[in-house]
Structure formats: C-alpha cells, structure tokens
Amino acid sequence: MVSQTRFYQRHWHSVLLAIFTSMLLASSTLWAGVFGHRQAPEHAERGVGILPAMAEPHGYSLEDLAKVTAAFNVSDHSLPPELVNGSRHSKFQMLFTTMDNTFHVRPNTILYVPVLTFDDSPPVIGKFPKIRDREAVLRYVFSAKQVGLQYSILAIDGQDFPLEEKYLVAVKVPPLPDGGGTGYMVSAAFVKPLKKGSHEVVISGSITGDAVGPWCGDLGFACPDGVSFAVTYNVIVD
User: Pick from 69, 15, 22, 12: which is nearest to 166 by CA?
Assistant: First the structure.
C-alpha cells in the first residue's frame, strides 16, 4: 500500500485524515451508538462548519471528489489535480500534507478535506470489501476484527466536527499509483468558506482493529496499540 513515511503523509493527512477522519454515527444506522457522544453540526448557518455529506457544491459530490483526488492522495503529493489545487480555475482547495502545511486561499473558497483514506493496493489492511457493498464497507472500517476505526475528526479553529458514516465514501477508480488497486475509500468533508484571516484546521483519527497490527508489520514497523494521528493545516484567507 505505502511505505511507513507515506503512511503518515497520506493515509493520515488526508490517512485515513487521511486514513481516517472524524466520524460519528447516527442512531438510525447500522453502527448506531458507536460515536453517540458527538454530533457533527451539519446545519450550522453561522461560523465555521462543514457541509452536509450529501451536498454538491459547484455540482460535485464527495464521491466525485474522491474519484478526482484518489491517485493524488496515494502519491507523493506532487502536481495536485486542477480541480482542487487552489489555482485560478479550480473549484476547491484540498488540504494535504506539504512542507509547511500552509494554504493561501481566496474568499468564498470551499475546502475539501480528506481525513482518512484506504485502498486495496497491497499490503491491504485486513480483508478489503467490495466497494459497491455499503454494509460490507462499513463493517470493514468499523469492525474490531478489521480496521476498527475509533474516531475521525475534522477540527476548525478549535471546534470539532466528527465525521459520521455518511462522510465515508467508497469508489472504483483506475489503477492507483501505489500498487494498482482500484478500490478507494475516503472519509472527507467540504468545509464552508472561511472568513478572511488565519485559520487552523486539524485532522485526527485512530484505528485499533485486529487487522492493523499485521498491516503495520507488512510495512516494517510495530503498532501493538493501533495507529493514531493528528495533522495541523494553516489556512490563510486573503
């Protein structure tokens, strides 16, 4: 899948956040109660916040952005896709690990923030599910026998936004550059445009499933307690 270095750059920037993001599960879902102590304020009208998981800003869904950014997010982060690189013609700014993790954006820019990513390029964590089987995808990510996601959080200026299962998307993609996988999952959210000035965006996640230890071993290091991460981005709106 990735080297240990890329693991922290990809699967926790963006691994899983980048690889796994801020999750909270609604009481009506298969995974009800797992993160029942948190509630993502999807509908906040003022201040910082994230868009609802089903939102399609500029006509793009989370699934669309997952397909566009998958190859980049499993790479060394060179040459970001035009759609999300913050250029004059781009629609979004994606946050990803850089030398200083600092991004300058124009007012009214929507951020796309991956927290956690998984794909089926070897080595794979546990038994990768069929991408189009939603229940299998959720079991894979949340089951203690597989990935065992404990939390995945996107924090904006000190305010936490746990990403519930709706923010986890799974898509088929062309063969990926990290080993030829074609199944890609990402926990991500769109961040509402921020006010002018400096902002801090932090992604964090933790996975402790039974399949994580063997996966770490395949990558050449030990993680007896699973893997946790936190990455800070500086966003300057000017």
Answer: 22
Cα–Cα distance for residue pair 16/23, rounded to 1 Å: 11
Q: What angle do CA 151, 152, 157 make, to 5 degrees?
A: 120
Listed residue (166, 183, 87) closest to 127, CA to CA: 183
The token duo for 52 is 């609802």
pTM for the full predicted model: 0.81
- Cβ within 8 Å of residue 152, ≥6 positions away: 16, 17, 20, 21, 22, 23, 115, 116, 162, 163, 187, 204, 205
Q: State pLDDT tens for residues 18-43.
A: 333 223 222 222 332 233 333 444 43
Q: Report the share of the chain in percent with pLDDT over 90.
A: 69
Nearest to 121 by CA among 78, 74, 63, 156: 74
DSSP-derived letter for residue 176 is P
What is the DSSP track for 42-87? TT--SSS-B--TT--GGG--HHHHHHHHHHHHTTTS-S--GGGB--
